[in-house]
Amino acid sequence: MTGPPNPALAEAIAELLACPCGGALVLEGASAACTACARRFPVRDGVLDFLDDPAPDAASGREGP
Asked: What is the pTM of this model?
């Protein structure tokens, strides 16, 4: 089941987790969005999925700037 996370998850995300780029995450509906790079990560069954969104340069095989 996918849906909006509960308030406890929102608080934990804000205090403990960060985007792989280092930016802060904020919950927007059923996903978390990075305030620095705008990547989005879905929340599925109450679990934040960092693997769903590939890195910006993953398809090219290059590393970022």
From this structure: 0.61
